[in-house]
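anyone seen this seq b4? input:
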Amino acid sequence: MWLFATYEVRLPKPVLLKSASGDPVVMSVNLKGWESEVMLIPNTRLGRIKQPRDGAWYHPVSQLEITVVRDGELGDEMVHAEAAKALVERLLVFLQFKLWNSLFSAIEKYQHYFSLDGADRDQIDSIKLMPPQLDLVSDYAQQNMRDYMSEYFSNSLSQGLLQDAAISIAHKRNRRACLELAMACETALGMRLDEAAQVKACMGTIFKNKHSQAYEEILSLFQMRDALKQGSGGMFKFISTAKRQAMEQDLTRWQGAVECLTDWLIAMDKGLQEAQ
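predicted toks r here
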């Protein structure tokens, strides 16, 4: 089953983020199988801070969103919030090292920090960790997990997942939207597709011939879904604005393709029922 949730995070103490504008900054990280997408939201009301070390402008960040996903098993949902908290805490450590060090030096200090035991960590003066406040976003309060294997792949479930994906796309929660669209496609087809290679056979040649562009877009969607399962290697990666915008454009096309497939399948099913 896919487990996913989006959390609002409020930090007890702001961190500084190197940014030329006040636009949100997106990062990705994979920690022990938990893949996440983090959106850091600068507080533009507090203005910018110029650091003498590099002459660059920084924005204070006291709020962020984290979407945590995993293709897990029954019971994994019990530690979902704990995984999100661990990801945020590690991110805050990395950002504090990055403020005063080059990227490679920050990575080395980050890795060294987490190789120490708790007592030795407390001796590092530059790191002062305070627990962030973690809350599920209100519009997903009841949708922390979609065990769609037990929901009989109904049309209503597929439509519900499409509605969830539309919300995620509007709020720029790209990883979550990708999973929700893939799951909507799976529920419409009536089976879980563990790999993108299975999608071609499930959609069939009739749909391919009638809606070739939607067919290709759905293949692309599942290739991205499979990439999420592989994770991002365990290190924090900033996502460029260009790449994020390209992903948002992909999601819009994938949304239309999945809607096309679900509408086509519903029409086909209705035609078969009328023929009986």
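The helical segments are 80-100, 103-113, 118-122, 155-170, 174-189, 199-210, 212-230, 241-275. The mean pLDDT is 82. kinda curious what u guys think
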